[in-house]
Design brief:
Blueprint: H1 4-30, H2 33-56, H3 63-94, H4 104-128, H5 131-139
Length: about 140
Amino acid sequence: MKGSFVRFLVVGLVNTGVGLSIMYVLLHIFHHYWAATFLGNAAGAVVSYALNRIFTFKSGVHLSTSILRFILVIGVCYGLSYYIGLQFSSWLLHQLPAAVRPFKKDVGILIGTGLYTLLNYTGQKYFVFNAKKEAVVIHD
């Protein structure tokens, strides 16, 4: 697992580019925060799963097991991160001049993305693609 966080960040640049692009396009076309973040995150998640399984963690965990765990981790990370991001940006921008308040959702996406990255790495490394955890389960 040495260097897995660096590889995770490289993969993250790719899937974040995909996901954020979709999020911001959809946000500014449809003006719906949750739909934009959900669809952008879903697109980034597909890229993330494939690249993290093969490149980041070089995982041998059974495909069906890792996909179910991946979906669980992505869902929890998504809900927590983007909710906290939106709430924090609302609070933060309320402290600033009214001219910046319309950017609450844009800032929420950035904050949510940062938090999502940290939570997602932890979940993927220790729950989704953890071959040692899988080996313990198989031998029980």
